[in-house]
Amino acid sequence: MRFPTFPTIVRTFYTFSNYTARLPLQFKALQPVTRGTVLKSMPTIPFLSNLFSISAATRDMSYPVQKSDDEWRAVLSKEQFRILRQQGTEAPHIGKYDKHAPSTGVYTCAGCDAPLYTANQKFKSGCGWPAYFDNIPGAVTRHTDSTLGMERTEIVCSNCGGHLGHVFKGEGYQTPTDERHCVNSISMKFSPEDEGAAKSKDSKA
Ligand SMILES: [Zn+2]
């Protein structure tokens, strides 16, 4: 029945804001674990990661854009091929779009130019890779990825099946979805035009 005393309110508020302020640090503290595992495992055993990959069913799924490995190699750089077509991961903090924060524009697939994310879906996560809380409807397909001894959700381009990264949920980011699409910069291109303009340009091409 008693109304909380003023010091109680102050203390509660202080605890709450302290907790909130600490959140990003906690996430940072978690990052090296994930990053270390990915970096250590991926480059040394690229064929192994393919072997245990995402499941054959995923790779056999038919996407509108179908190319053989040789055809992909002809249009992608070596690093783009490794990441988009062999489920690789680029090193953190070095990607072109990690700290990219335009107010408008569209991120498209580096393999097939399909629009994937809008600039206003991007947020600053501090994780070392571009982060988005949502994607353009239908542009991204999710698969369960059981490689590296853990279960993650892989995200690929719905148009060509190119590997984009992974999506993580419930980390406490103050975004509308509390999801983080952790995407390799090299899997994307950026167009400063808005989504509609990017689409009409695509249809002309
Ligand atoms: Zn694509």
From TrEMBL:
Keyword Oxidoreductase on entry: yes
Enzyme Commission no: 1.8.4.12
Gene Ontology biological process terms in this record: protein repair; response to oxidative stress
Keyword Ribosomal protein: no
Reaction(s) this enzyme catalyzes, per UniProt: L-methionyl-[protein] + [thioredoxin]-disulfide + H2O = L-methionyl-(R)-S-oxide-[protein] + [thioredoxin]-dithiol
Annotated PROSITE patterns: MSRB (PS51790)
Enzyme class, UniProt record, top EC level: oxidoreductase
Cofactor binding note of this UniProt entry: Binds 1 zinc ion per subunit.
Protein name (database record): Peptide-methionine (R)-S-oxide reductase
Source organism (scientific name): Calycina marina
Classification lineage: Eukaryota, Fungi, Dikarya, Ascomycota, Pezizomycotina
